[in-house]
């Protein structure tokens, strides 16, 4: 089990930068020093699915989140130099061979990996995957753009009223939103974390608000900011406590 966890940790840090051949222990340590340190954290891009006015964060994109093209976020270009982000935000194109996707775009799924369908009744696989061209490719279909009637359970808006929002650390901090471990921390920073900053990032805004109501913001230890692992453990504890309370209330016939 320890070896499995070590391998998963390796993949979170390295991704496919090893070209399919595992680094030696020495190469791995060197990689972490040169690629998984402060520069990766400083140039990290935060990706969320939210209403166009950015009034909520309905979905935090993570490494395994699928794109409109069918490939996961981690299969897209997510690593950039800090100087590359000074002029404009990149589109995060897919790196899978033969894929025409030029920008990561989230599409909600109805359980598992099945994306919602377009109003033309066809799937995402039946549409072009380029950012400015998502016309349906089914013979005889006149659909010019993928558009779903799916309504977001978090904010109540339709999927077409959402955007896949990409922002830098500086931009996110200016909006007062969490960014996870700072570049100055000694943490090893993972690849393709997208919008994930803690365990609670896996929840929509409405449920994160519930967690904050249970005990305020991210926990700290004796005035010192807690590590990411401690934050995640604390949010998990609060979340489980909420679930337990809801089950108890349900058994008593109390509607919450």
Element layout with pairings:
Elements: H1 2-14, H2 25-35, H3 38-42, E1 45-51, E2 59-60, E3 162-168, H4 169-174, H5 205-215, E4 220-221, E5 224-225, H6 228-251
Antiparallel strand pairs: 1-2, 1-3, 4-5
Helix pairs in contact: 5-6
Give the termini separation: 41 Å
The ordered string of helix (H) and strand (E) elements is: HHHEEEHHEEH
Oligomer: single chain
Percent in helix: 25-40%
How many E strands? 5
Helix/sheet category: alpha+beta
User: Rough shape?
Assistant: globular
The overall pLDDT, averaged over residues, is 81
Strand content: 5-15%
Q: Over all CA atoms, what is the radius of gyration?
A: 20 Å
Major β-sheet strand ordering = 2-1-3
Per DSSP, the total helix count is 6
Structure explained in plain terms:
The chain has 256 residues and is of the alpha+beta class. Helix content is 27%, strand content 8%. The strands form two sheets. Strands 2-1-3 form a three-stranded antiparallel beta sheet. The chain has a two-stranded antiparallel sheet with strand order 4-5. Helix 5 packs across helix 6 (228-251). It is globular and about 55 Å long. The model is unreliable at 216-229 (pLDDT under 50).
Write a concise keyword list for the protein shown above.
256 residues, 3-stranded antiparallel sheet, 6 helices
């Amino acid at each position: 089990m320890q070896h499995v966890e070590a391998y998963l940790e390796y993949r979170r840090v390295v991704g496919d930068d090893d070209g399919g051949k595992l680094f030696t222990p020495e190469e791995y340590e060197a990689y972490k020093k040169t690629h998984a340190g402060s520069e990766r954290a400083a140039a990290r891009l935060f990706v969320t699915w939210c209403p166009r006015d950015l009034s909520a964060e309905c979905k935090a994109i993570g490494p395994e989140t699928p794109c409109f093209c069918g490939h996961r976020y981690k299969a897209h270009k997510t690593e950039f130099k800090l100087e590359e982000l000074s002029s404009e935000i990149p589109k995060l194109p897919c790196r899978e061979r033969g894929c025409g996707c030029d920008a990561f775009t989230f599409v909600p799924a109805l359980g598992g990996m099945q994306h919602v369908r377009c109003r033309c009744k066809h799937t995402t696989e039946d549409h072009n995957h380029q950012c400015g061209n998502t016309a349906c490719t089914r013979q005889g279909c006149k659909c010019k753009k993928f558009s779903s009637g799916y309504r977001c359970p978090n904010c109540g808006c339709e999927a077409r009223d959402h955007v896949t929002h990409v922002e830098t650390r500086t931009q996110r901090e200016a909006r007062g939103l969490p960014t996870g471990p700072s570049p100055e921390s000694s943490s090893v920073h993972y690849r393709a974390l997208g919008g994930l900053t803690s365990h609670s990032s896996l929840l929509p805004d409405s449920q994160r608000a519930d967690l904050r109501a249970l005990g305020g913001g991210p926990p700290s230890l004796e005035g010192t900011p807690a590590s990411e692992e401690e934050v995640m453990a604390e949010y998990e504890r609060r979340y489980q406590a909420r679930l337990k309370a809801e089950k108890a209330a349900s058994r008593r016939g109390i509607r919450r």
